[in-house]
Task: structure prediction
Amino acid sequence: MGVALTAVLLGTAISSSASAANRAPSAQKYGGELTVAMDATISGFCFANALSGGPLGATRTVYESLVERDNKGNFVPYLAQSFTMSADAKYWTIALRAGIKYSNGEEFNAANVKQNIDIGRGFITSYPSTGIGVNANILAVDVIDNLTVKVTLDRPDTGFLGLMYRAGRYVMRAPAQIVTGNKECSTKGIGTGPFMISSFSADELVAVKNPNYWRKDASGGSLPYLDKITFINVKEASQRAAAVRKGSVDAAFFTTGDATFIKDLEGRKKDVKEFKGPITGWGQWMPNVGKANSPFKFQNCRLAAAFAVDWNNYNIVRLKGKGMYNGSIVGKTNPMYTLDGATSYNVAKAKEFVAKCNTDLGAAGPFKLTLYADTSTQSQNNVKFVAKYLTDAGILLNNTLVAESAILIASIYRGGGNLYDFAEGTPAEGDAVGYVIPFFISKAFNSTSTNPIKDTAYGKGYNTVIALGAHGDEQVDRLIYAAQADTNPASAKLKWAAASAYLMSMGYTIPSVHAGSFVFTNNKSKLVGVGTLKNPDGSTPAVTETKGFEWTGVSRG
Result:
């Protein structure tokens, strides 16, 4: 009877606790649905599916990362409990949080983390992707116990957490999604996030509440509050703005390139509320040196393009001052920031270098380029603005290639390298350098690499997929790797600046406008709790940034 009575009382206590856990704070309530307008299509959920900001934010309701970034730019543990770097920065130990499950009930554990990283780096040859280039410095991933993983690096890397974040792209996928040979990896994503996929097409994602979600609110209540979010692709920024203003959608995502409509919405405070993300998208235009027959194999051609465009005026006119131009390839808070070696708008110098470029090209001249733009009117007009500066400097242009962003991304980040003359703005972002340097180096696996994946078909095929300029100059690598290995922040900063100065002076990267993201919500939707839910470590998250909007703690009022 004592055992039975204990069981009854325990059952009552559990039942009572469960009931309390489902109660939201007085300001928030459970239930409700939202419709959110994003700016592009969702290409899929597998390793090779590189997504732009809006679609990435939509999928981040389904997926989570080992590490997140707070509103001050610090990297904080998320699915991980902690990260420990060895004294020489060549070994990183990752302790995972206990009790986390995927939406299908599978356990999140060390074996699963190893599986995700090993597939991403090409060690398990199931899903080729850009991660093979991004992860080229990872030599081994070992399971220490069920909740501990050790990562061994080829070279020291003090910025490893930035690599693990990758603007929210380094997500963990369930074993059932990534089992070898699973042809549905791209269409049936399974994550640990607050929502799970109900239905999916390229233009619409319907995400419903994940009953297995691990996080709780401040009062111990279950998360998320909302029952369903429907993300729809509304390509034209004008239509997105009209939709959120009129209330046909509850929220809409914008990037700095949509500045005309952002500024208009900012004047409509009775209709909408603005949530502005930090400017962390460090803008560079990267000449594609390695493309077959590229004029950019000549430094004079690269410098002609570097001096030709007035990016400060672009920010003022096209971006309504919503972006930032500082003359460097990164923001001032990034260790790589410097103006040494930087180029800036000078039409006389641009014309001088165009003449030298044409001499270098000889019979292959004159200097002629092809730009590309997304199918949206705003994107095409932005590119036209840049094109006018190039032609004024004497650079000839072919017709602009226009395609949907998913197609453009797939053509830029591909085995064998970027197909276009430029990478028109890399996704390098944030104050940490871990997610910046892969785009600057000569190749993923350079001559000093000891990674055995270097000599595999994947390693050879993806050697330049992230090194978007494919310049092949290993002096860049030597400068970057020296900075990357330095555990003294002061001396490391000098080394990072030296790397940036070399990149800019050689014309390998052209400083342009730095950007951010914006979300507007309709006031009639009465959204509650935006930005108030703390990270698991108690820090405050960035409400919106490259990885999208934080929906976990949001409810309808």
Notes: The longest helix spans residues 2-21. The two ends are 48 Å apart (CA to CA). Residues 284-511 form a domain with the Dipeptide-binding Protein; domain 3 fold (CATH 3.10.105.10).
